Amino acid sequence: SGLPESIIAAACARSGQRVLHVDSRHYYGGNWASFSFSGLLSWIKENQQETGINDDCEDWRKLILENEEVISLSKKDKTIQHVEDFCFGDQDSAEDVEEAGALPKLPLFGASGAEEVARESEEERPPMESALPDAESREPEKATGTEPASAMEGTDTEIASENESSHSTAFGESTLELGKTEAAPSAISAQEPKKITYSQIVREGRRFNIDLVSKLLYSRGLLIDLLIKSNVSRYAEFKNATRILAFREGKVEQVPCSRADVFNSRQLTMVEKRMLMKFLTFCLDYEQHPDEYQDCENSTFAQFLRTQKLTPSLQHFILHSIAMVSETDCSTLEGLQATKKFLQCLGRYGNTPFLFPLYGQGEIPQCFCRMCAVFGGIYCLRHSVWCLVVDKESGRCKAVVDHFGQRISANYFIVEDSYLSENICTNVCYRQISRAVLITDQSILNTDSEQQVSILTVPPVDLGKPAVCVIELCSSTMTCMKDTYLVHLTCPSTKTAREDLEPVVQKLFNLNTEKETENEELEKPRVLWAVYFNMRDSSGVDKKSYDGLPSNVYVCSGPDSALGNDCAVKQAETIFQEMFPSEEFCPPAPNPEDIIYDEDEITPEESGFSNSPETKPESSTEESSSGGSSAVKKEDNEE
């Protein structure tokens, strides 16, 4: 139930198809999921243990006919490797501490504890319903000046600046307003951060929503457009990324992005301001001036910047913080396209091009799962599929066999890459993503405002190595407890995640647990807890690379290393159009109050809808599990 599969499921259900969406995990999202702190610790244990799944299904092979053959699927998820977690505090003091409001801990595996595990996961993940405008139910102690933006409206005019003060219509909060409302906390809190212990983190574990994949949404990106077009945006809330940072000469500094930022910046001289504005204006319509870059088309973007009479600091800002591209591998055209995309996204919902979903990136797949459930899709978690059943004559997949020994027939099959066995993936060459998640006690760049969502690109020390993308989230994003920050680090892998990312962590943060530290280390944020892991990047793999897959079986990739979500949206739309060329991809869902029925021709029971509050479309999706639906609960009860 990752992002591409969830989008396809929603699109199919919306176009009138019958959809069954199963996941062998006990939570939504796959490698796109978000966890509470205790949920993440359980996930870490799962991936550190070499635990296989036994074939408990008896005589399922009797369901296979003579003219059919079987393609076995993988029983073990092998997309996560090299998981290492570290506590930089007194971990022994938290042994007897339990998460506030949590159920007693139970074994993660075993049929006897399956229902209890489901209940525990439901308790850990906040319900989807409260992702709608009323956020108080999930965060009763709201920090000053951190009122989240409400769900997106269909047009930009409805999100105009004059409406930004209204909670019901404003999408992106103004960074100027944010600065004013958050000016109350003084610099004292930045100089003397509160001491956070590991036992506090465990006790407040449900305040955390920790993403496995770290991404932001471009305000004019494909995912935002899809959320608006399909009305799925009503199920989520978002917050603006408030600042873009740069790491230069060993220091973290803020990058001016908008015209106002450039002219208000004290980092740049007047000459540099004119240079930067002139270059950015050129990038917005560079296609109209091909003579400016034709001579450098075969050069890298970094080499092109050197020909533009820009100072070294401006070249650094543009390359690493605006275009966010590689110094060695990015061509001039690619760099200009990335710069233009950044500039086009400025100002739509805030002072930066980026948005972040409240409660974590894992909310987005659940939003599309919810749309699918509204239109009749059935969801089954903890439901494994053993094999695909293929007709020998036609070569098409006819059915699947699940772990109950049930044979389920369908016309099309969408499977995530991690479910494919090694026999199918012999010719596939996977890339890897290095990931780290840190819990820290203060921001990497302290200001008067504590509630900042920041993005920082740390350039590589050695040429040829990848840059590291750092995203720092504050407590107003509903992803961490008060007085802490959640920091995500991501880069394409060259070694293990710890080997790739620990040098950057040491530059930006204090890892020393001893009381006596140097003054330089005292100025850095202190890491309270950290985890490193490598995640498979299966994006860009051609379907032809998979051996022996039937034509009606489509493969979705896991998360990629890019900052945005364009790859997942493009993949979902491509697969949907291959299956249903004549259908519109994710058309707007009607509002329940706009649906009119002819009582003489269609009764509420026949249509599946009713005006009564128990059965109308909106309430049919109420659930206690994250992102599920009443259909999910019904299926689980039947099981």
From TrEMBL:
<dbReference type="InterPro" id="IPR054420">
    <property type="entry name" value="RAE1_2_domI_C"/>
</dbReference>
<dbReference type="InterPro" id="IPR018203">
    <property type="entry name" value="GDP_dissociation_inhibitor"/>
</dbReference>
<dbReference type="InterPro" id="IPR001738">
    <property type="entry name" value="Rab_escort"/>
</dbReference>
<dbReference type="GO" id="GO:0005968">
    <property type="term" value="C:Rab-protein geranylgeranyltransferase complex"/>
</dbReference>
<dbReference type="GO" id="GO:0006886">
    <property type="term" value="P:intracellular protein transport"/>
</dbReference>
<feature type="region of interest" description="Disordered">
    <location>
        <begin position="582"/>
        <end position="639"/>
    </location>
</feature>
<feature type="compositionally biased region" description="Basic and acidic residues">
    <location>
        <begin position="135"/>
        <end position="144"/>
    </location>
</feature>
<feature type="compositionally biased region" description="Basic and acidic residues">
    <location>
        <begin position="116"/>
        <end position="127"/>
    </location>
</feature>
<keyword id="KW-0808">Transferase</keyword>
<keyword id="KW-0343">GTPase activation</keyword>
<protein>
    <submittedName>
        <fullName>Rab proteins geranylgeranyltransferase component A 2</fullName>
    </submittedName>
</protein>
<dbReference type="GO" id="GO:0016740">
    <property type="term" value="F:transferase activity"/>
</dbReference>
<keyword id="KW-0963">Cytoplasm</keyword>
<dbReference type="GO" id="GO:0005829">
    <property type="term" value="C:cytosol"/>
</dbReference>
<dbReference type="GO" id="GO:0016192">
    <property type="term" value="P:vesicle-mediated transport"/>
</dbReference>
<dbReference type="InterPro" id="IPR036188">
    <property type="entry name" value="FAD/NAD-bd_sf"/>
</dbReference>
<dbReference type="Pfam" id="PF22603">
    <property type="entry name" value="RAE1_2_domI_C"/>
</dbReference>
<dbReference type="GO" id="GO:0005634">
    <property type="term" value="C:nucleus"/>
</dbReference>
<feature type="region of interest" description="Disordered">
    <location>
        <begin position="105"/>
        <end position="170"/>
    </location>
</feature>
<feature type="compositionally biased region" description="Acidic residues">
    <location>
        <begin position="595"/>
        <end position="604"/>
    </location>
</feature>
<comment type="similarity">
    <text>Belongs to the Rab GDI family.</text>
</comment>
<feature type="domain" description="RAE1/2">
    <location>
        <begin position="433"/>
        <end position="561"/>
    </location>
</feature>
<dbReference type="GO" id="GO:0005096">
    <property type="term" value="F:GTPase activator activity"/>
</dbReference>
<dbReference type="GO" id="GO:0005092">
    <property type="term" value="F:GDP-dissociation inhibitor activity"/>
</dbReference>
<dbReference type="GO" id="GO:0007264">
    <property type="term" value="P:small GTPase-mediated signal transduction"/>
</dbReference>
